[in-house]
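User: Fold this; tokens only.

Assistant: Input:
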Amino acid sequence: MGEGRRFRFRRRWFLWVLLPVAVIALGRWLMPHEEVRALVIEEITRATGAEVILGESSVRFLPGLGVRLDGGSIVGTGAALEAATGSPSKIDHYEIRLDGFDVDLALGPLLTGRVRVTSIEAHGPVMAFAWAGEEVRLEGFALALKDVGVTVESARAAVERAAGNVPPGEVIPPDLVFDLEARVDRVTAQKALYEGLEMGGDFAGRILTVPTFSVHRGGGLLSGNFAVDYASDSHGRFSFEAAAEAVPAEVLLAPWAPDVAGRLDGPLDVQASGDFAMRDQATVLRTLKVEGRASGGPGVLRAEDWLREATPFLGNRQDLKNIDFKSVSHAFRLVDGRYHVDSLEFRGGQTDWRGAGWLDL
């Protein structure tokens, strides 16, 4: 989940590039289609330093201005992005392959100095980003922004601010609004596969609110809501509520606690909520606060090497080091860089185990 979230934060520049490019192309609908296509390629290349290949373009003007690009790809590096924007980038490299890109622009609001994009829709086979040796890969994606609104003056000022090394919250126009819908067939993050991601939300007042998201993992379901607040923190503050239902413990814990994941078999249900500041990894760890509860069973905890000190006391019942439990319950907190085990209880047919304590992250 953490990596999936980082992807969403870092892809904002992609939307900022495509929005003005689309507006420019729409404003020149009288131009030959090949000239429109060349203009879009030129603008994306200038803004990102990426290698850009686009398919055929078409332009329409009824009932409103519209442009469509039939496929293409954008492949680039963080170094080229830094050179083009003049701002530091944590991205190592990225790849976006499109099957189609459509923009519809309402004509009426332009007369009052506002840009209102009826819809921006992009879909394709692959969107991948890598940074710090980690990659997030989306396969089979469909992204739609609808009812996008912003004043021309505010958008122009945002482009000027983006040229400097400023936090994202200071770049985002204060009057920018849009609705968001997203669907992804497969998401790979931290070498973990998630399937059938769906989410919807809106952006207003520099706050992205997603009241519903859901994704499948190992036959179980992850769902919840989240918000990214750039109004109170210009670097962004992430808050969430999430739940896991009947997800295999090994699959659910593998990206976050691999040592535990390799020892625990059985389904888990988890409810958690929390928030953190998004400035950098050190800030995330320092500000991260999470509270939650997990329960599940039946299953097995293979704890043989954890219970070496108990060997003399178990006598001929060394088999008890593999804890066969009917149910497990666990209350936890993450705060000040420490994982607090408020309670942990395994109930089984032959033994019950209880514990509490903490671990430094």
